[in-house]
Amino acid sequence: MGRAAIRGRSALSQEPLMLVRMKRGPKQKPRRERFYERVDRGTGDGCWIWTGAINQRRGGYGYFYDDDTRLRRAHRVAWELEHGPLPEDVALMHTCDNPACVRVSHLVPGDQAANLADMRQKGRGFVPPPERGTERYNATLTDDVVRRLRRAYDSGKPIAPLARELGVRQSTAQRAATRQSWKHVTD
């Protein structure tokens, strides 16, 4: 039986209430069925290639419109179909190194740091090493100044006067002196 809506009586009109039948679009297929219609399972233990939308600008990953019309990465949806919800901060690594693959046995959960380390180890992508200290374009300290700040801090001297003398913010000097920043500098 279809949906129905009731049209009420207008304040200006004396028309009676009437039942109006509302049209519905075609019933949407279940999520699993819609998803696997777009997967080429191939043969053997090889990759299952996503044949739906693929974004080449974002690494060649497949994308799928989920039930709530959110655009999601296809390999994450594949994992959720088999194992349940996956927290947003958990990354899925492709052991096959094929971003279009949605075969769950080729996916391993981990964190983003492990995913990037795996990528570097396999020689994929380019992630420049983090800039540290004076390599950064906006560095206001040098390694020698940091050592001087740490010596002063370790001997119990206040950091504020030294920060003023060096022309840097007190918070910058404090973070360097307490080893919260400039961690690569040894004493």
What keywords describe this structure?
3-stranded antiparallel beta sheet; alpha+beta; 187 residues; 6 helices; single chain; elongated; two-stranded antiparallel ribbon; 28% helix
Instruction: Report the sheet-strand fraction.
Output: 15-25%
**Overall average pLDDT:** 84
Summed up, the helix count is 6
Major β-sheet profile = 3 strands, antiparallel
Q: Percent helix among the residues?
A: 25-40%
Tell me the number of strands: 9
Shape: elongated
Topology:
Layout: E1 4-7, E2 18-21, H1 31-36, E3 39-40, E4 49-50, E5 53-55, E6 61-65, E7 71-73, H2 74-83, E8 91-94, E9 107-110, H3 112-121, H4 143-154, H5 160-166, H6 170-177
Helix pairs in contact: 4-6, 5-6
Describe the structure.
This protein has 187 residues and is of the alpha+beta class. It has a 3-stranded antiparallel sheet with strand order 5-6-7. β6 and β7 form a beta hairpin. α4 crosses α6 and α5 packs across α6. The N terminus is likely disordered.
Short description:
With 187 residues, the protein is α+β, with helices and mostly antiparallel strands.
